[in-house]
């Protein structure tokens, strides 16, 4: 199967590109033209001129690539059922209703910021209301941008990334409101709140606990703990470092040989780092797997590539092309591009 992918890729040449997320299966990562976290993949996909982008990631990532693609480019996903439970925890329609309620009660203008782990309708909602997208690698920078303009922020869908970002920026708890999924508000007075946090979560990162950290510190006294900011607030506070997938990778890569690392993020990514950086001891806080990423397999990737080849020869349709409704495209792309502009400008 590996040989099939390589053979088809060689025949297609630079007409096709395969981006893959760090959480993908090794067999998919091995076939990738570029590898990264969600921000890097968004930027790389916006720059490629390949006619066909076969995305090794979950559906919201492929949607993002489709939003940034040119009119002459087509995006495919090997399995459209590869989703993200957190992205399902809020919709554009639901966010609009909440936003209107919050705006009526807050003294400041509220800027909606949606995590990349969201669908096109959420990105379009943000774009239509002067908001933007963010990723875990740039959330603090983007939230700070609007707080510095004396605006409040409605952050969704991941509560943990939101509260950990607020802590990173020194925002006190009495200026933070939690927005429950039933619309209930908890915490600060909405009229003076600076950050409103939706209460979604990532099941992969929510599993890590303080006991996991204590266990590793007991067995490895010199261990350094690094976790993803989608982890619970207490877990992030108890860790030595917290950051995006790219930050975790680069921190471990640049660490001195012989150092010991306990890592709280998706297990396949941690296991791959342990193999890559064998001069260090790398231990997962626990084995927590993104099963949606697991849906993208080498076999399905082969089918996608074969469909591109057949399509070019007018011998069949593309299998699982990714499209975004025209009604969402303009505003969703605006929100994505605004993120890239803010980050790349600095």
UniProtKB/TrEMBL annotation:
Pfam entry (one): NadA
EC top class named in words: transferase
A GO MF label: quinolinate synthetase A activity
Enzyme Commission numbers on file: 2.5.1.72
Superkingdom of origin: Bacteria
Pathways per UniProt: Cofactor biosynthesis; NAD(+) biosynthesis; quinolinate from iminoaspartate: step 1/1
Matching InterPro entries: NadA, NadA_sf
Cofactor needs: [4Fe-4S] cluster
The keyword Isomerase is annotated on this UniProt entry: no
Keyword terms, alphabetized: 4Fe-4S, Iron, Iron-sulfur, Metal-binding, Pyridine nucleotide biosynthesis, Transferase
Any single GO BP term: 'de novo' NAD+ biosynthetic process from L-aspartate
Name the record gives this protein: Quinolinate synthase
């Amino acid at each position: 199967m590996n040989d099939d992918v390589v053979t088809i890729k060689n025949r297609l040449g630079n007409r096709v590109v395969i981006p893959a997320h760090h959480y993908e299966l090794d067999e998919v990562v091995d076939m990738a033209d570029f590898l990264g976290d969600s921000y890097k993949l968004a930027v790389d996909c916006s720059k490629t001129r390949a006619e066909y982008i076969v995305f090794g990631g979950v559906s919201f990532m492929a949607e993002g690539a489709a939003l940034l693609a040119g009119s002459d480019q087509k995006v495919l996903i090997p399995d459209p059922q590869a989703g993200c439970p957190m992205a399902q925890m809020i919709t554009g329609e639901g966010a609009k209703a909440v936003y209107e309620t919050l705006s009526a009660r807050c003294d400041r203008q509220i800027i909606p910021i949606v995590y990349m782990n969201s669908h096109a309708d959420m990105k379009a909602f943000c774009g239509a209301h002067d908001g933007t997208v963010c990723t875990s690698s740039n959330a603090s920078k983007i939230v700070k941008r609007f707080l510095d303009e004396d605006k409040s922020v409605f952050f969704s869908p991941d509560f943990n990334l939101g509260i950990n970002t607020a802590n990173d920026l020194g925002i006190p708890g009495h200026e933070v409101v939690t927005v429950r999924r039933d619309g209930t508000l908890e915490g600060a007075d909405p009229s003076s709140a600076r950050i409103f946090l939706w209460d979604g979560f990532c099941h992969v990162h929510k599993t890590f606990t303080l006991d996991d950290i204590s266990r590793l510190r007991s067995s490895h006294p010199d261990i350094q703990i690094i976790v993803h900011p989608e982890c619970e607030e207490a877990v992030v506070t108890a860790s030595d470092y917290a950051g995006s997938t790219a930050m975790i990778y680069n921190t471990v890569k640049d660490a001195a040989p012989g150092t010991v690392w306990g890592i709280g993020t998706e297990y396949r990514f941690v296991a791959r780092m342990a193999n890559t950086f064998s001069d260090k001891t790398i231990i997962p806080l626990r084995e927590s797997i993104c099963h949606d990423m697991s849906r993208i397999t080498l076999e399905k990737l082969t089918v996608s590539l074969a469909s591109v080849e057949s399509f070019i020869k007018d011998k069949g349709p593309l299998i699982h092309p990714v499209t975004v409704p025209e009604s969402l495209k303009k505003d969703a792309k605006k929100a994505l591009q605004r993120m890239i502009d803010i980050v790349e400008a600095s």
